[in-house]
Amino acid sequence: QVQLVESGGGMVQDGGSLRLSCKVTGRIYNWEAVGWFRQASEKEREFVAAVGWNPTSAIYADSVKGRFTISRDNEKNTIYLQMNDLVEEDTAVYYCTVGPRLLTARTGDYWGQGTQVTVFS
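^ that's the sequence the OP posted. Answer follows.
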C-alpha cells in the first residue's frame, strides 16, 4: 500500500513562495499520475495540479496556473508543489495524491494527511 506524507506547509506573506513536499512510501507506477488538492475552510476539496510520467503532461487549476509548478522526483519518490506569488485565497490544507485517473477524472486513489498553508497580508 502507498503511504504519503506532506510537508513544507506553514505561514507565508502575501506574494511569497512556499515549496510543498510529499514523500511517498511504496511504489508509484509509471502509469500513475501524482497530484495535489487543497481544501479551504468550509469548502470542498479542490483540484490544484497533477502530472504523469511525462512532465509535459502537467495540468493545473485555473486559479493557480502560472504560479504553481508540480514536479516529481522518481529517484527520491517525492512529489513537489512549488507555490509562488501566493495570495490569501491559496490558504488551505494541501493534500498530495497518487492515482491513474488524476489527469482525466482528477481523482486520486491514495492520500496523505495534508499540510496547512496560510497566506497572510
